[in-house]
Amino acid sequence: MPRLLLAHVAHETNTFSRLPTDLPAFGRRYHHLGDAVATAMRGTRSEMGGFLDAADKYGWEVVHPISAAATPSGLVTADAWAALTGPVIAACDGRIDGVLLALHGAMVAEGADDAEGDLLTRIRAKLGPDVPIAITLDLHANVTETMCRHANIVIAYRTYPHVDQYETAQHAALLMARTLAGEIRPRAVVTRRPTLVGFDGGKTTVEGVMTEALRRADAFEKEKGILVVSVHAGFTRSDIHDAGPSVAVTHDGSAARARAIAEELMDYCWERRTQTSSRPCTVGEAVSIARRPDTSGKPLVLADFTDNPGGGGYGDATNLVRGLLAAGIAGVAVCPITDVEAVAACRKAGVGATVTLAIGGKIDPEFGGPPITVEGTVGHLGTGAFTFDGPMWKGVKSSMGDTAVLRVGGMEIVLAANRFQTIDRQHFLSVGIDPTERNVLVVKSSQHFRATFQPMARRVLTVDTGALTTPDYSRFTYRKLRRPIWPLDPVA
328 Cβ partners below 8 Å, 6+ apart? Predict the structure, then answer.
């Protein structure tokens, strides 16, 4: 019976964030060890859930030392990186016939700019050259040569919002099963261009550069010996040498043909690098549209595009809330504003109390606006615990941390201790708000929110509030990124 090492260590690191990612940051999302991994992740629509189901299907014996993820933020501390990788490396001491790793692909740790490459290098040193390793990645991975040198199989999600995490894991497991059976001997190659952006940011909810690239990838995968063509939009807010879009091809045959395919798709990326389907509106434009009478009975969804915790945003930008409050628009629900101090003040006051608080804008007011002082009534207090309904992460348990709902005029503001991207209706339902019954929903997300909230909306707008996940890269100083690179430099 083959013995497989299954592990999940994921973080998308925004190196421009002021918030270091320590081990407690993983605990605030999830951090399971040993037997707790299967207990927490089995039956979920996650990559680890997919790996566990595959192990049952193929009759593998498994060891699963860790499943951990944290909301995107700043550099992963050296202590956290040691604690996350230690169980994986220790598990390599026993007999291991294959490795399935769920990674993000854009993690940066203190002392390890290419964190995933560092982990793979250490695993390969322990297991030797012949044990197959398969990695699953976010399609916003910054894929490096080191990652592809040590991983035999490289496969990223093909949807954004990422609703195919389970299927991606199952695909990786199938290729692992074929490898262990001696049917294939996979290897991976990767290529990129001098651009920080491309593939329309990976968006798959509209026809565009990414959807066309994936169609071409599907066609290439029909060729003999081409196992996976993995298209990555890259993560732009990461100051490392290899940040940006890439294509990795996993093959069982000609490395030259695999590289030619990767080069052809990256040529397409380069030629279409200016094309985007993202056209966020201003706060003023969003408020103007929110003022319009509605007879549909469905909510207008305003996504705070540039304050997305899923890209490392602080989740406490106030500019959009300020504009909606000034306009006096009724039936607005905002979820969430990250503010530990405001939550604590609400809890001290109690449900029904009237409080005057400065909320949001406390981590870095340069991005998204300063704190806004409001008078409101505490309407709900809770732990923020919930289980995802899906489509993303269905069945996974998580928490926004201590929460409070502050009613200010016609607005309900969810205050939360933990930073969290709004991607599931349970973010609202867990604090007593039915999102389908509100006039306007404000969510902190760039794209993932669409899987849940677009079907219930009368209209969806993304709003530029000037926060940390802004697409204006000139606001950041890149020191390690390869140069010249578009759009920061003129590149022929």
Answer: 409, 410
How does 308-331 read in b/e, with b if 16+ C-beta sit within 10 Å?
Answer: bbbbbbbbbbbbbbbbbbebebeb
Using alpha carbons, select from 181, 188, 108 the residue that is nearest to residue 147: 188
Residue ranges per structural domain of the chain:
3-271, 283-470
The tokens describing 200, both together, are 């329309």
What are the pLDDT digits (tens) for 197-217? 999 999 999 999 999 999 999
pTM score: 0.95
Q: Which CATH class is domain 3-271?
A: alpha beta
Q: Quick: pLDDT tens for 429-457.
A: 999 999 999 999 999 999 999 999 999 99
Mean pLDDT of 279-287: 95
pLDDT above 90: residue 236: yes
φ, ψ for residue 32 (rounded to 5)?
Answer: -110, 140
CB atoms within 10 A of CB 490: 7
Sign of CA dihedral 149, 150, 152, 157: negative
Q: What is the pLDDT of residue 492?
A: 78
Which residue, among 444, 473, 453, 449, has the nearest Cα to 320 in the 3D structure?
Answer: 444
Residue with tokens 């408020």: 287
- Nearest alpha carbon to residue 285 among 418, 431, 461: 461
Bridge partners (DSSP) of residue 68 are 9, 31
